[in-house]
């Protein structure tokens, strides 16, 4: 009995010691998780610190640098996040047209339909360019990709998800595609870079401040930050920042902040960039056997490609919209605070309940989208996004601009 | 007695590499020869056959797959008619969210708990292999099962795809063309990446398996955990935690079909799997080596 007893007490003390040792083992997984969490938390912070040390440069010199850039070959990955304060466009479009893009009569490879996707959310794009004749742009989706390929006078669009292709042949389409897909070739610039820079600064003059605000690292390259800010108040645009490669003057990152603060409205920048010649095979496209190809007749193609590519610089379309229909459009104000006044042909404003051509649900939906305002001009509805606001008066006038709601109402009051 | 113990332990340690292979081999044969495992593999092999025949019937009259020719349905399905090789990718896209991890969950959950349940765990531990090595062997055999299961899906899909559809030059999802040989190479790489995507989940299953003495409970808990995590991954409001969930980057294998290959998310996926394997593997080790084996 005695040995047994002693064994028992021994076992007891050994038990607690062993228990402690057992518990100590759990430190290993906890430590692994802790180290991982710390790494995830710290590495981006460390990577962000330390903006590159570059020689000082003036805004004019920087603009000259951009204009003088002769980089024709590049490939890289672009991350673009947009937040216009519009409730998810994709979901909205889908709820209106069940069946998605492919069901709407056209091809889902049609550039126009696809580019509007970029106006909301975060997307990863790939760009490659080799001279003015060869460019490609791909939107990387989940397990699929949408590619727009320009090679000479051929423009192909391929949507791998639905296995549909879109084909257009026209020279001009391609040129525009090249210029607007973030490719910085300054074709057709009539003057020297220096003259151009002066011109830009002069034009910006009274309404805009253009400064160089330090440096940054973009996609592992040293860059200067060019900051463009409206001098006037009342604009919804807070500032536009362009990060320009210090070595070759290629714009690497574009950030548009709203004056109301918060997340960037548009944040588009290279996450990886390579200035060597891209593989020639990336600019060739032959539709696979069995792929449905939609041919665009030339005029239509040009119109569509132009329009869709405008969508690449979200906001540009909206901002420029006022200037295009000169007939019934007046521009009030200047610079950043310019407001387009559009008189709708029929003279009727928003469809109201009385007109009877709109179902009650749609009317409710429209009302829910906008804020009712009244003023000297009568009453109307303001549709707000973070960047562009529009006032539709009940007597059929529309005021659109990248200005605050108050500025719109003021403009409407002054006009009436 | 103590001398005998040390002698046995010494004998166990000396021929260690071969000995480890020995238990790994016996472990693998027991795992892969089980009727349960064979049935799981059979189900996995049937999935591509089903998809292939369905697409073939649907497009037999020359129409495009899917209603309205839209991009609905699982990834890569619309390209299958052009190239049978895409059936491999489509089949993996279909099986990866549920079937494959479920099979892995069953095998991983059963690995330790099943032995405990059947009362065979203590006999395994009598063999002078040590608990750590036994656990590593168990994990290794689960990983081999991951690879085997993925290859079964891929090879079955390749066979069905080659039988029912034309094969030839492959159009990558970027629209560029690569030869059939390179296409096959990429398919092989994708199968390996898909198998590697399951590493983290296998470690979770192994950990759960060390917690309980009931094989069924471990399998159910593992598969339940998988479904829960998948649901969490699908809720947009919880997007802040998504990058840390093991299934989040599973579909990134599709990036290998881009031209040039987009590695970012593939690397993130593999890193995340490694992290899960390290955390849950060491947790399983902590639990298993400190556990009282009663059965």
From TrEMBL, chain A:
The keyword Ribonucleoprotein does not apply. Keywords: Lipoprotein, Membrane, Transmembrane, Transmembrane helix. The keyword Lyase does not apply. Residues 1-20 are annotated as: Disordered. The chain crosses the membrane at residues 26-47. It comes from the Bacteria. InterPro entries: LolA/LolB/LppX, Sporulation_related. This is Outer membrane lipoprotein-sorting protein. The lineage of its organism: Bacteria, Bacillati, Actinomycetota, Actinomycetes, Kitasatosporales.
Automatic annotation (TrEMBL), chain B:
Pfam families: ABC2_membrane_4. It comes from Streptomyces atratus. Keywords: Membrane, Transmembrane, Transmembrane helix. This is ABC-2 type transport system permease protein. The lineage of its organism: Bacteria, Bacillati, Actinomycetota, Actinomycetes, Kitasatosporales. The chain crosses the membrane at residues 38-57, 85-108, 139-165, 185-208, 215-232.
